[in-house]
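Weekly sync, protein design subgroup
Attendees: M.S., D.O., the rotation student, P.L. (late)

Item 1: inverse folding check
M.S. brought a backbone from last month's batch and wanted to see whether the design step gives back something sensible before we order anything. D.O. pointed out we never logged the input encoding, so this time it goes straight into the notes. Structure tokens as presented (64 positions):
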């Protein structure tokens, strides 16, 4: 079964990064969603070291 990207458009999650691509550029590569007291970050990309550090910093902000 083929999955079409348009079937996976964001409805609630906050996009954090987009693809740098002519077709996929309109879709989020990284998105974050909160539910109750939790937060989930979705990553659909291979991250560079710089992007890993940025995402980790954002994901764990305020978590003690």
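Designed sequence read out in the meeting:
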């Amino acid at each position: 079964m083929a999955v079409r990207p348009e079937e996976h458009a964001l409805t609630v999650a906050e996009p954090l990064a987009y693809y740098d691509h002519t077709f996929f550029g309109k879709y989020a590569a990284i998105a974050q969603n909160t539910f109750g007291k939790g937060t989930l970050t979705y990553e659909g990309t291979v991250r560079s070291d710089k992007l890993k550090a940025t995402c980790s910093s954002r994901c764990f902000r305020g978590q003690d």
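Discussion: Strands lie at 14-18, 28-35, 38-43. Residues 12-59 form one domain.
Action: P.L. to compare against the previous round before Friday.
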